[in-house]
Design a protein that fits this description.
- By secondary structure, the protein is an alpha+beta fold.
- The protein has 16 helices and eight strands.
- Helix 2 (about 25-60) packs across helix 3 (about 65-80), helix 3 crosses helix 4 (about 95-105) and helix 11 packs across helix 12 (about 275-285).
């Protein structure tokens, strides 16, 4: 299925092209092209992940690590659970569920395994497969109804511990922030999306990000410490007030300062506005029911370091496509992250370097930086 992913990216790259003699597209036509572009990229992502699951289900041996197949299966299940979209051709939900069932049983994720087996009961399966499923379901019911904590994820935006299965669309179940995954191991990366304020354009924002060195906020450098701070628990306790049948959560700048100062990030002259927004999300502990991205203005952008901000450009892959940029901030700087210049997908540094050393370039779009350098010289 990897070749299918590659050629769907090729289709996406053609969405911005205009043939010789063709009239310039109207605003509505550009909108349709942008929709097709994102649909092609989504399909390529699903085929790339399904390639690992299909090999695991059909071949006696696989070179992929168990955790990689597990992460790819979780990604697929979350993306295919979105009722607004249909699964691409030849991608089987049953295979994804069966793979997750086997893996979760072996990884002692008993609660998740029981959920998967219950979902599989909704499908009409071959007799041999159904018998194996019945035996596995009985065996898993004899285990404790808990998941091994080593494999549970935490949202890097709201710092909430998440259930084993993600929300439809591969999002956080609390703040609905989309997970950004490395497209080799499919592990969630510590990247938080933000949008620009209305007075900023993409060109001005990129200039601010690339020109300014910014400062080095300690709250962002070790965001994990912020999640585990005892002071944050005390702040939560002070901000929750009982009011009959419901709890009303209130907080002010003092509570945010308590949480930040516990990590040495609340000094009056070195406060990070971005980290303060994240702390406010964590103090709230609940969502409005829809994803609301963080907003950054000129002052916030000028404080960022250029090496912790990533700009995803749709017109990098599809030349000429008037799509909006997406902005991400790296919350744990000790984790190396690479953005492919070709397909604009994220990878762990070491994983991307290992795959490119095989000689095929990016594992998703086959982009080779040396080819671009050679073209520039010519």
């Amino acid at each position: 299925f990897n070749p299918s992913a590659y050629y769907y990216l090729k289709l996406a790259s053609e969405c911005g092209s205009i043939q010789a003699g063709e009239k310039a597209p109207t605003a509505d036509e550009w909108g349709k092209r942008i929709s097709r572009y994102y649909e092609y990229v989504r399909t390529a992502d699903l085929y790339h992940a399904y390639h690992l699951v299909h090999k695991y289900m059909t071949q006696p041996f696989t070179s992929s690590e168990t955790l990689t197949i597990f992460n790819a299966s979780k990604f697929l299940l979350a993306m295919l659970s979105d009722k607004a979209t249909n699964p691409p051709q030849n991608i089987s939900r049953v295979d994804v569920l069966l793979a997750l069932g086997r893996l979760t049983s072996a990884m002692e994720l008993n609660r998740m395994a029981r959920t998967i087996y219950e979902r599989l009961q909704q499908y009409v399966l071959p007799v041999a497969v159904q018998e194996q499923l019945d035996i596995a379901s009985l065996a898993i019911r004899g285990r404790p109804y808990v998941d091994k904590e080593d494999y549970l994820n935490t949202c890097f935006r709201c710092s909430q511990a998440l259930p084993s299965l993600m929300a439809p669309g591969d999002r956080c179940t609390n703040c609905f922030h989309p997970f950004v995954r490395s497209f080799v191991s499919f592990e969630p990366l510590p990247l938080v999306e933000f949008i620009l304020s209305q007075d900023l354009t993409d060109e001005k924002a990129e200039q601010l990000i690339l020109s300014g060195a910014g400062r080095k906020p300690r709250a962002v450098k070790e965001w994990k410490d912020l999640q585990q701070a005892n002071a944050l628990k005390n702040a939560r306790a002070q901000g929750v007030v009982g009011s009959g049948a419901a709890d009303v959560i209130t907080f002010n700048d003092n509570l945010v300062d308590i949480a930040l100062s516990a990590q040495g990030a609340g000094d009056a002259d070195h406060r990070d506005p971005f980290a303060r927004q994240l702390v406010q999300i964590e103090l709230n502990g609940r969502s409005s029911g829809q994803y609301v991205p963080l907003v950054c203005d000129t002052d916030m952008l000028s404080q960022f370091r250029s090496d912790e901000i990533f700009i995803v450009k749709g017109n990098k892959l599809a030349k000429g496509l008037p799509s909006e940029n997406k902005y991400y901030r790296l919350m744990v700087t000790s984790i190396g992250v690479t953005l492919c210049e070709g397909c604009q997908h994220f990878f762990h540094d070491e994983e991307f370097e290992f795959e490119t050393m095989k000689g095929n370039g990016c594992p998703l779009c086959r982009f080779k930086r040396e080819d671009t350098l050679a073209e520039d010289k010519n």
